[in-house]
Amino acid sequence: MDLNRRQCIQAIGTTLLGSSVIRAATGGTGCVSAADPDAPATVLPLGARKALMVDRKFVADSIGTRLRLHPPKKTGERLIESEHPWESATINWFSVLKDGDLYRMWYECYDVEGWPTADDTSFCYAESRDGIRWTKPKLGLYSYRGSTQNNILFRQIGEGTHRSRVHGNCVFIDPSAPPESRYKCVSQGQFQGLADLPYFLAGMSSPDGLHWKRNPQPICRVFADSQYSGFWDDRTRQYAIFGRVPGRGGRAIGRSAAAHFAGFSPFARVLQSDDADPPEADLYNPACMRYPGETDLYLMFPSLFHHQQDTLKIRLAVSRDSETWTWPDRETPLLGLSSGGDFDSGSLYMGNGGCLLTGNEWSFYFSGSSLKHREVELNFLAEPKNRRVISRAVASPDRLVSIAAHNERGQFTTPPLEIRGERLRLNAITATDGAIRVAILNRQGQPLPHFGLADCRKIQGDRNDHIAVWGESEKPIPQFDQPVRLQFELDNADLFSFQCVDRPS
Fold first, then answer.
1. Is-above-0.85 flag for pTM?
2. What distance lies between CA 497 and its chain's CA centroid?
């Protein structure tokens, strides 16, 4: 490391760090300037909650670090694929969730006989005990070719001229609703006579996820195509829905929110491609959800549609309020395309609710096809090898994004934190020759006695429960009435999260 860079890193640890503005780390050799010591700093009330390094919320100043995406690993499993006559064209949009001990999936499929008509789509159901082995139960709810021995919930829903298929479904559980409408769904729906375009955003409700009733009027008067996302947000006490709006390249992601499951305003654009993307690229479907177990963190898995190549890859965006979104690592797809004509080599879409805990790992449910976007025509879909397949990729929990320093040492300091606990636990990976050290600073950026970087033992290895130790014995973290800052030195290391915890009793 050159002398100028070392001096810059040292300056960050000893200079007043009062800014509440989060700076982007460049990873280059320049020094990030210190903030005005008299500037007020926002205190983050972390307590004993986990600080996930998926964005720069917990970074006040840094040098030599970057946010790094760790893509889940595809399993290659063919969880749901076309096997019945009503699935003979292809499988399409789907939602997946965990309901008690049961994993449940709702998916759309088309048959060759109906394609392409208003009656070509079956809304179907599958379930699993482990999230891996799925069954399509014989529900006895819909007669297809004279038999109800199938997993079809319905083909069309609604009344009169407002009756239509489901397209672009998002099923979610509504904890605020009475039992008879505990399950909700947003999708495309036909409503003739309301405007020149008959399709708007429709809402459905169900007591059990199997028997559905559609709202008689649109819940949002926007044209509905591709897939939409929705959920009840405990943080805002509102329903939030996400879907397609015009934007750079053609398509972008919009959002609307309402206290009731009706009367949503037109979408406000919240995410689109930009100059860092190919000029003809846009965003296809939102696949938006709450981060598992977190109340103020949201994930979005849109597919970047590269028009020139006619391909779609899944990306990751994050938000703390569901309105302002950032790309943690835009250079790395969350899920990229396979090669050689595999089922996931042409286009990929994430399912709604697509990140679930299965056993001790996260499963990311997605659908893939060897067909590119403009190849989705009946003459291609009639070939079984071309039909879309629902699969999954897996990752360790809370290891989607890290703040990382590779090749040379990096450092970052948090804003002032209100913390609670006796020990500092890190979810981190270091190289064999790498390490992490942590210092506890006062609000003005000065190390507390015996808790500086030099006092911290090297943290090394691959664990989700590293414990920071200062000195020869494990000292408890000092508990003060005033907020403190944490300073992390990373050397060939990835830090996914940190958390203050109590000692085991």
1. yes
2. 17
